[in-house]
Amino acid sequence: MFKKLFVVSLLTTIATCAVGQDTTFDKSHFVGVQANQLFKQLFNLSNAPVASNPYLFNYSFNSAGGAGLNVGFGYEFEEFKTGDPINQRETDLNNFFFRIGPEKKHLIGHRWMLSAGFDVLYQRESNITTNSSDTENFKTWVQTDNIVKTWGFGPRFSLLFSITKTIVVGTELTYYFKKSKNESRLESSTTSREFNESGQLVFVTRTEEDETDNTTKQLQFESPAVLFLFMRLY
């Protein structure tokens, strides 16, 4: 914990000192995407750390002087089915991540920039899984819905390097407070052949439903493992 606070304090101090420099910052738009996989392939970085940053796309507008607004978002969707003629499993994943907040970029050299900002974030992660089994005398169906809704806020610090006038690479670290609500719902039905009161063999279906929810809070530090590739537009 002390090391994390030390890094955040150090970058804050650097950002504060950079304000007093006589460099000028031109009005700019920055449009960027995560580029970890690209750099990994280009430089054969097989042991490079895996970035857990969910914000795949980022955009910022900065006025003359560096003050501006930063927006980041990410979206993930995946659907897959597995199984055989008797047992089937289907999973739907649907995740959305969004953050927005003011920031200020400072020139700390001819090619280097430091950005300090404060973000408000929201994310929604959904996992719906269905399992089914169908035989001549027995059928089951179970569906599990897990939805996690998260909001939070916290500081963000970025270090950027201008390869050319329009191409910029950068990384960031964040220290976000997050509060999450996890909603889970389980539905199931079972159909089996049973003898009724008259001794006849009939199909009987039983259903169940259960809902739970819980809340978690965390203060999450993300080290600068992510790499962004930006295009700077004037």
Architecture overview:
The chain has one domain. Helices cover 10% and strands 67% of the residues. The protein has helices at residues 2-18, 36-42; strands at residues 28-34, 57-62, 67-83, 87-107, 112-134, 138-162, 167-195, 201-222, 228-233. It has an eight-stranded antiparallel beta barrel with strand order 1-2-3-4-5-6-7-9. The model is unreliable at 1-22 (pLDDT under 50).
Index terms:
10% helix, 9 strands, mainly beta
In a nutshell, what does this entry contain?
By secondary structure, the protein is mainly beta. The chain contains two helices and nine strands; from the N terminus they run αβαββββββββ. It has helices at 2-18, 36-42, and strands spanning 28-34, 57-62, 67-83, 87-107, 112-134, 138-162, 167-195, 201-222, 228-233.
SSE order and pairing:
Layout: H1 2-18, E1 28-34, H2 36-42, E2 57-62, E3 67-83, E4 87-107, E5 112-134, E6 138-162, E7 167-195, E8 201-222, E9 228-233
Antiparallel strand pairs: 1-2, 1-9, 2-3, 3-4, 4-5, 5-6, 6-7, 7-8, 7-9
Major sheet details: 8 strands, antiparallel, barrel
Percent range for β-strand residues: over 45%
Tell me, briefly, the overall form.
elongated
pLDDT averaged over residues: 87
